[in-house]
Amino acid sequence: MSDITTLSFEEAMRELEATVGKLETGEATLEESIALYERGAALRKHCEDRLRAAEERVEKITLAANGQPSGVEPVEGL
């Protein structure tokens, strides 16, 4: 399994969906299910963090006088 921190939002979402699918089948052993659940929880957090960071960047886009994006402002705390 790859390091979650290196995954893009899209990659993590695909893996999270696959993990949920495996859990839903009920075919995994108890230990496998626990490991899948733990990885799924970490993937969900990673996706939430990536999405929050993207939303903050969008909120900080500055507009020029003509209404066109002119740049971004740094997000405090990042």
Automatic annotation (TrEMBL):
Q: EC number(s) per UniProt?
A: 3.1.11.6
Where's it found, cell-wise?
Cytoplasm
Q: Does the keyword Cytoplasm apply?
A: yes
Q: Which GO terms describe its molecular function?
A: exodeoxyribonuclease VII activity
Q: Which biological process annotations from GO are given for this protein?
A: DNA catabolic process
What InterPro entries does UniProt report for this protein, alphabetically? Exonuc_VII_S, Exonuc_VII_ssu_sf
Which reactions appear under catalytic activity for this entry? Exonucleolytic cleavage in either 5'- to 3'- or 3'- to 5'-direction to yield nucleoside 5'-phosphates
Q: Which GO terms describe its cellular component?
A: cytosol; exodeoxyribonuclease VII complex
Q: Broadest EC class?
A: hydrolase
Q: Where does the protein principally reside?
A: cytoplasm
Q: Which UniProt keywords apply?
A: Cytoplasm, Exonuclease, Hydrolase, Nuclease
- Record HAMAP family: Exonuc_7_S
Quaternary structure note: Heterooligomer composed of large and small subunits.
Question: What is this protein for, i.e. what is its function?
Answer: Bidirectionally degrades single-stranded DNA into large acid-insoluble oligonucleotides, which are then degraded further into small acid-soluble oligonucleotides.
Q: Which family does it belong to?
A: Belongs to the XseB family.
Protein name in the entry = Exodeoxyribonuclease 7 small subunit
Q: Which organism is it from?
A: Paracoccus gahaiensis
Q: What is the lineage of its organism?
A: Bacteria, Pseudomonadati, Pseudomonadota, Alphaproteobacteria, Rhodobacterales
